[in-house]
């Protein structure tokens, strides 16, 4: 890799001369000889630019994207259509290279875009205030749990096992060393077990976390969970698929105190896992406990409308260790992408995407289960994901699908031992009847 390093031996000598040293070893003279490495690092020789380019191409070709495969895999990352307009706007240099807009007087464009994003998230979730984005859906959910603890001064969080397994892992990581009791609530026929929730909740509970639609794609009985939660003076945290809000009631309508979710499906590519964007919205009374940046609307000295970062006293760069949260960066570019997507699609567009996704998912479900080789894992209303079970191992089915350039379902046995022979399929508006029929044909032939 020497050709890529701009420091020549002559440059190195000049730098050493300027600080009065004879060799690079003199820089490390304070390190005892007994702990210095006496051999070369176990690394291969450097490559030329041509060799490196070919090597990276070889590595990249091992990956298969959804431009080459028909995708029926969801479980948190969704293959929705992204209008060409979005990439064009996001790629504009003033957006693509913009830094955190601390200096409002030179960042009005970026600040207004973030403000519009927040406004749309509020409208989508039916809540009063939203922040300028989080790392991803899992982080947003976990930060909401910490927000509930801080708001109620209680230290117990209940989370349904129907919440995404990876989100629960992040929750576990966050709460483990914060003296917060994390209790998982069991599953009853694909949804949150209300009896177990009722017996687990008490006056020490800060919040209840529910995902709707849940990890299995099923629509939860949110109103019952909301009643149990608020009867015990706890906060209801809802993790939602933003596309589902095109046809389902918003978290605000269902009584949620905090709404969070993964915004990848709002115009962001799946990108082999990231970067993504978490969104968070809450009721006005909890706004000062919300983590992350918030953009507000104000007036300048001339009475003209302007935008600024507001309520900054909550944040790490002001309060340091006393900050509401120590989450520091956000995902402003991905949030901008989500805002452009929502603007491009509009209310009717989001509703149409949600409607087509659920219609096509039910078409696929009916076709797959019709033959009798695959049975529904649960008989519950679902949005765009559903689980089926068969006598065949999921790996065998998915391998056969992959041979036919189809990306199959998520094997639920990875996270739920009782469902070891179940596959979770996702169908978005991108899928056609022909693609679904091919999926069914290959599955039946296994």
Automatic annotation (TrEMBL):
Keyword annotations of the record: Oxidoreductase
Database matches in InterPro entries: GcvPA, GDC-P_N, GDC_P, PyrdxlP-dep_Trfase, PyrdxlP-dep_Trfase_major, PyrdxlP-dep_Trfase_small
Classification via CDD domains: GDC-P
Uppermost EC category: oxidoreductase
Entry's EC annotation: 1.4.4.2
Gene Ontology biological-process annotations: glycine decarboxylation via glycine cleavage system; nucleoside metabolic process
SUPFAM superfamilies, alphabetized: PLP-dependent transferases
The reaction(s) this protein catalyses: N(6)-[(R)-lipoyl]-L-lysyl-[glycine-cleavage complex H protein] + glycine + H(+) = N(6)-[(R)-S(8)-aminomethyldihydrolipoyl]-L-lysyl-[glycine-cleavage complex H protein] + CO2
Domain Glycine cleavage system P-protein N-terminal: 4-442
UniProt-listed Pfam families: GDC-P
Alphabetized GO MF terms: glycine dehydrogenase (decarboxylating) activity
Quaternary context: The glycine cleavage system is composed of four proteins: P, T, L and H. In this organism, the P 'protein' is a heterodimer of two subunits.
Function: The glycine cleavage system catalyzes the degradation of glycine. The P protein binds the alpha-amino group of glycine through its pyridoxal phosphate cofactor; CO(2) is released and the remaining methylamine moiety is then transferred to the lipoamide cofactor of the H protein.
Stated family: Belongs to the GcvP family. N-terminal subunit subfamily.
Name used for this protein in its record: Probable glycine dehydrogenase (decarboxylating) subunit 1
Organism the protein comes from: Clostridium carboxidivorans P7
Highest classification ranks of the organism: Bacteria, Bacillati, Bacillota, Clostridia, Eubacteriales
